[in-house]
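pasting for ref
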Amino acid sequence: MEDRLGRWLDIVRDLLAEPVTVLPHRELLDGLVTTFGANAGSWIHRTADDQIDHHLWELGAKPGDDAIAWMQTRLHQHPLICWFAATADPVAQTVCRVPKSLWDPCYAAWGDIMRPLEVEHQMAIPLTLHGHCHRAFVLVTCGTDFSDDDLTLARRLQALLIGLDRQAQALERWMPRAPSHEASLTNREVAVLGLVADGLTARAIARRLLISPRTVQKHLEHVYAKLRATDKVSAVLKAQSLGLLGGHAGRFGSVAAR
């Protein structure tokens, strides 16, 4: 298990070498399929208005469009969805570990579609879970179920993936929309300053972006020098005036209090 985890630490480190503003679903899913010896994997994003973004990779016998539409309208019947809804526990889980008492009786109707696809065993690794809204990687295999070690590793990798996802969202949010010739901040500097504007401390920013508090301070020193600012509030205000933070006001009261 430690070898597989070590390879993922290398993967995440390489991804963090440059600012990631969009989570690389395909690359991450390819890595997960390889790590767990799965037959295939998918990325599922179900929104609050029940829109479903579903990308399936590596499956040999793929379901037709009608079958996919049929499953999407009955997603609430899936054992993993039932499990997450009943427990509100967002950690990675497999279908076969969900107690039968939580299975929707109507799930039996899925058999005709699922059997030819050889996806008997499924493991979900959620990145976000809010009610019926979720974003998750799902791995599938047949024959032998995912082992206990597999599930333990998936739960450890889940923390890395969530951290990477949060950083991508932060960087995307604070990407400069109106670049200024007067000052030019790197994507990482924009992300750090944007989180400062939201009232986060250096330690909290470090946890959010998976960097050290010392690195956060170094980024802020560079920001101060580039913007000719002397503190956090003046740096945020100057960045705002230059359009470097996309017009977001932030929580200046929280910043000023620090």
